[in-house]
Amino acid sequence: xxxxxxxxxxxxxxxxxxxxxxxxxxxxxxxxxxxxxxxxxxxxxxxxxxxxxxxxxxxxxxxxxxxxxxxxxxxxxxxxxxxxxxxxxxxxxxxxxxxxxxxxxxxxxxxxxxxxxxxxxxxxxxxxxxxxxxxxxxxxxxx
Length: 143
Fold this sequence. Notes:
Order of helices and strands: HHHHEE
Shape: rod-shaped
Oligomer: single chain
């Protein structure tokens, strides 16, 4: 019967390789736990990796659209509020003008009301949302 010789160097190398492989797997598992996703999508999905990358890119693009739409919705809501304020102020001034034409109100009251209405309209038209003036046209940073 013949016995084979096993060197201590080969045993040491085998142990070192085993520990290194375990550390790599531990790092990969920690990454998966912290992100909630598979560490190597290509390895897990194989030929479907391209589809996963495409869907991830589409998800990011759609989330950007949702964020943009929320911003536009809030801006439109602020614009609508300003327009409602303008309507209310204009109707109040129209009532004052109607009374002034009929002679029920002195002209000084009409003049005072006109100044107040102009200030209210200017204030409403200079309204801003998120640092951009709503009725400024192209130069949204200017009142």
